[in-house]
């Protein structure tokens, strides 16, 4: 009698042409990174996208130019599966093209870039679009950020909420069938942050109007405390937990995970780390970069609860492959959750964190 082995028996059966995504993932993603993607899909549907879990997602890589803001992230938001989002500014900028009804095209990565430049065509690997898409999006941004609601100091959550409101109104006026990501976030009360507000065409336009005397100032310190407050109060619900889902790595990943060191290391408030750590990445851990850093390393920083390592998964694959699969799987397997509308309670949550910090550090002068 052979010795029993840990794991599940691989029982291959011929594939058919009538599979649902859930059946494909559960039955045919048997090993290697397909198995890790299966584990992510199952963990999200069974444990994470459930009542009591506050879900933060970080987003890097050129995901919105490929349409995933509208096609995948928007539906996940409306289903209540993304409670707050941290994205590169570029992802939020290119999302606006779809909100404005502009055209982007799937093409080839092997075009002649010198010829593209001569013909005013922009390329993002195998996506191309006209240079006027950038100019017209810039014009829209500059026009709205010079209006009165923007003339003050704010964090990126408030900035993107106001910008989302503007693009939401544009979409309604032009009769758009689907909303872009920022418009969906506005509609659902999902706060959207960017960890480096100057590092995108949105930030470039904010800088341009500053030269004209605009009073708009984006203060990243507000975001640091705002995201920390979301993570800290995630456990206020019965059996409340905090989940970190990372699509790619980079600065957004760190900004999502640093909420925990901000709480216990800097603010001196008790915290144990995120309960769930899920990442899709193509970055290696051995180069020392944050993009490839594994969950156990995050434990050493206090970013992940050491008792939750069993609920941490990294899948090494292209995010453009993984995101539609996990999105379709979750929407088929999970009942929608009530929207937390974290943006609506932003000021009260921020004020409560400030009071706790001041009380905990009153003896430190």
Task: Explain what the structure shows.
The protein is of the alpha/beta class and 365 residues long. The protein has a single domain (31-355), classed as Deoxyhypusine synthase (Deoxyhypusine Synthase, 3-Layer(aba) Sandwich). It is 47% helix and 12% strand. Strands 7-2-1-9-10-11 form a six-stranded parallel β-sheet, sandwiched between helices. Helix 7 packs across helix 8 (181-188) and helix 10 (220-232) crosses helix 12 (259-266). The N and C termini lie far apart (70 Å). The model has no long low-confidence stretch (mean pLDDT 92).
Count of discrete alpha- or pi-helical segments spanning 4 or more residues = 15
Order of helices and strands: HHEHEHEHEEHEHHEHEHEHHEHEHH
- The appropriate CATH architecture is 3-Layer(aba) Sandwich
Strand content: 5-15%
* Count of the domains: 1
What is the CATH topology?
A: Deoxyhypusine Synthase
Distance between the termini: 70 Å
Mean pLDDT: 92
Biggest pleated-sheet summary: 6 strands, parallel
**Low-pLDDT regions:** none
The strands making up the biggest β-sheet line up spatially as: 7-2-1-9-10-11
Structural class given helices, strands, pairing?
alpha/beta
Overall 3D form: globular
The gyration radius over C-alpha positions equals: 21 Å
Helix residue percentage? 40-55%
Q: What is the assigned CATH homologous superfamily?
A: Deoxyhypusine synthase
Quickly name the level 1 CATH class: Alpha Beta
Annotation, overall tally of beta strands:
11
